[in-house]
User: Fold this.
Amino acid sequence: MNNNNSAKKVKMNGNGESVIDNIRREYSDYKGGALQLTKDDTTGIADICINAFERRNALSGTMMSQLSDIITQLEQWEQGKAVIIHGSNGFFSSGGDLNTVRNIDNSDGGRRMALLMHDNLSRLQALPLLSVALIEGKALGGGAELTTACDFRVMSREAEIGFVHIKLGVTTGWGGGTRLVQMLGPCKALDVMMSGRLIKAAEALNIGLVQHVISDCDTNDSNCVLSKCHEWLNSYTRHNAATLRAIKGIVNSARWLPTDEALKKEVEYFASVWGGPAHQKALGSNIKHK
Ligand SMILES: C[C@@H](C(=O)O)C(=O)SCCNC(=O)CCNC(=O)[C@H](O)C(C)(C)COP(=O)(O)OP(=O)(O)OC[C@H]1O[C@@H](n2cnc3c(N)ncnc32)[C@H](O)[C@@H]1OP(=O)(O)O
Assistant:
């Protein structure tokens, strides 16, 4: 299910092109970097790597447009159980690429970027699979907001996350402010956004911004961090895809729908897996929960 009337459903421009498609076309001119998607149909786990290390994995316009395509692929990936989003070379992302940002530094330009990234991140959050932001190095500005659209955030011991927008004289522009309030409550969200400070892993875990800290890898050993993240994720992805996807659907419904509608959806998600292959297999075994 998608949670929002994204701009592409709400507004079309004169030549029948959606507003979002129009922005994506404009943004493909802002070059730099790439996002790489790999999907493993056997494990059901995908990986998105943010690849622009020369600019600390900042997202250029092209990359924002690419993110839209990648999310569409994941929306259509029926074997999907989870997706891990991480940055190249042990650095998550320093947010919007300031070279792109300098080309759109007026109110309408900002609004168009916000429309595209709100559509991207709302669809990312609505994906029928678990999403994990694996944070090494720093997640700053829009990079920090990108992590809030994932179901879970996992940090390496030395990593930091900073909603630094206020230091640039701006607010969150990719939906991260709203999601921070939903995650942390208004008081802690205000503290995080109005201070603009860099939050270390231990504090992030303590305030509930992050769900797991990987502390048993050597500094800068990104391969170790990624494999530990997969190990952590396995406690969820070892279960069957249909039930995982149904549970994510129930959570999404409760996030965005009125309670009575969310409960109706829950009945349907329940019915969709009850009596299914995983249920039958469990009923046919000597069930013992340890
Ligand atoms: C969407 C928007 C929003 O607010 O909603 C945003 O996210 S605005 C963006 C919010 N993000 C920021 O304000 C991050 C600003 N940058 C920094 O704080 C720093 O660069 C760090 C990201 C902590 C990296 O520091 P470190 O000392 O490791 O390296 P450095 O500063 O020499 O940066 C390495 C190279 O990456 C570039 N670089 C770093 N961040 C960039 C960015 N967001 N856009 C474009 N280029 C960037 C630097 O200019 C430099 O390129 P050269 O070697 O060629 O000089």
